[in-house]
Write a structure and sequence with these properties.
The complex is a heterodimer of chains A (275) and B (166). With 275 residues, chain A is of the alpha+beta class. Chain A has 5 helices and 12 strands. Chain B is built from 7 helices and no strands. Classes of the chains: A alpha+beta (275), B mainly alpha (166).
């Protein structure tokens, strides 16, 4: 017994170091696993309100380019609306807008990040405003990420620039599916993997979301094919995609809510329990 | 440790400086300076090693809290706090052993060595933990080199700025 105490007293510095290092390591491992609730997260009150204050102060800086983006989006939507109204004249009114499968609402980004291996974003709305886990986040130009954790006032988004994320995507032209990942190098380039050899692809083809998930609706734009090569061993393409979004300057975003999520996930769970 | 206030002020201002300003500097799109290790570097030289470890851990964890990095910065701070006595002995030699060391009385070369070793140690631990895979070894080294040089430059500036007049 005496010897144990002597040992502890003699190596107390080393032991403290190892203990704290162990805590830090386990927090790091926790941060690398997708979909576990995190002990250390920027959605807490202190960092949340500091970032919100910072966003309020610096909002004015990008105002002009942000206005341009929103005006462009308005024009695009207005054009669509005009077309829709014209086609609506021909169809009975009751067929349209009876039930909306997806609805979206606006949020503001208060912290951006795109230089790290695993990037997370912070939004200015949380549970109070209806933001829930696993909702998709898009900008006017394309997808941004998935809501991972929410508190009352803030939501943390796992960015598409994160090694732990993988999103179902497809080629718009041929409807071949693949998964979207990021290799941690360039904030404008993501990779589409697992596209089968049979797909005919060309540089410049558009890639959109696949709709095989309960998070994003189908046909949300992602990016354009920059280059590709066939992986000879596996028979799959490795495709580099240039994002439509400029991930380095995001401000006004939309959170997408899938209104039939409970219904769909009920069926999925039922299938799992049946098996 | 007769001036708690100074250290608390240093702690808070370094965290805010790092989080609100320095993390938005993206030189050439990948160089990001880290200045908060200065807190660990400037801890009193005769401070109990266990206290130093705990303070370093808290400092790193507060940065992690803002950056969503888990325990990456906490681990990096811990490592440099643990190895600090060794680095001090290496760079300042006999003065450190006799407890007569005054940081600003030493020559520029010794101070530079101390800062450089601490910063590069911190950066390499931090970037390795952040990547968490040997696959990115080259990227880690590149980031360490460029960000390290930038951090070193900034820290030398800040140290001159906050220097107490004799």
């Amino acid at each position: 017994m005496q010897q144990i105490f002597n040992f502890i007293v003699r190596f107390k510095t080393g032991l403290t170091f190892l203990l704290l290092l162990f805590v830090a390591l386990s927090l790091t491992i926790e941060a690398h696993s997708y979909h576990t609730s995190k002990w250390i997260s920027s959605t807490n009150f202190i960092s949340g309100s500091i970032y919100e204050w910072q966003a309020e102060v610096t909002d004015y800086i990008g105002l002009r380019s942000e206005n341009n983006k929103l005006t462009k989006e308005n024009t695009r939507l207005r054009n669509k609306l005009v077309n829709l109204q014209q086609s609506a004249l021909n169809v009975a009114d009751t067929l349209i807008n009876k039930d909306t499968i997806y609805s979206s609402f606006p949020v503001k980004l208060i912290r951006n990040s795109y230089l790290k291996m695993d990037n997370y974003l912070l939004l200015n709305k949380g549970k109070k405003d209806g933001v829930k886990e696993n909702m998709g986040v898009i900008s006017s130009q394309g997808i941004v990420g998935i809501v991972e954790e929410t508190t009352a006032n803030y939501a943390r988004v796992i960015s598409i620039l994160n090694g732990n994320i993988s999103i179902n995507a497809k080629l718009k032209k041929t409807n071949h599916f693949g998964s979207l990942t990021w290799n941690g190098r360039n904030p404008n380039l993501v990779a589409l993997i697992d596209v089968p050899r049979s797909a005919k692809i060309q540089v410049g083809d558009t890639v959109v979301t696949g709709g095989n998930s309960l998070i994003f609706p189908e046909n949300i734009p992602i990016g354009r094919i920059e280059d590709f090569q066939l992986n000879p061993n596996q028979g799959y393409y490795d495709i580099n995609i240039k994002l439509f979004n400029d991930m380095t300057s995001l401000k006004n975003l939309y959170v997408i809510q899938f209104n039939r999520k409970e219904e769909a996930s009920f069926l999925l769970e039922k299938q799992e329990t049946d098996e | 440790m007769n001036n708690y206030g100074l250290h608390i002020l240093r702690f808070v201002s370094l965290v805010l400086l790092q989080v609100l300003i320095l993390n938005n500097i993206m030189l050439f799109d990948f160089v990001n300076p880290y200045i908060y290790p200065l807190f660990v570097i400037l801890l009193p030289l005769n401070l109990n090693q266990i206290k130093a470890l705990i303070l370093a851990f808290v400092m790193g964890l507060s940065i992690d809290l803002f950056q969503d990095t888990g325990g990456v910065h906490a681990a990096a701070c811990l490592v440099i706090a643990y190895l600090r006595p060794l680095v001090l002995r290496f760079s300042f030699g006999i003065n450190y052993d006799y407890q007569t060391l005054k940081f600003y009385n030493e020559g520029f070369k010794q101070r530079f060595n101390y800062l450089a070793i601490m910063i590069f140690m911190h950066h390499i631990v931090m970037f390795s933990f952040e990547a968490f895979s040997f696959q990115y070894a080259l990227l880690i080294l590149k980031n360490t080199l460029y960000s390290g040089l930038f951090s070193l430059f900034l820290m030398l500036l800040v140290i001159q700025l906050i220097r107490k007049d004799k």
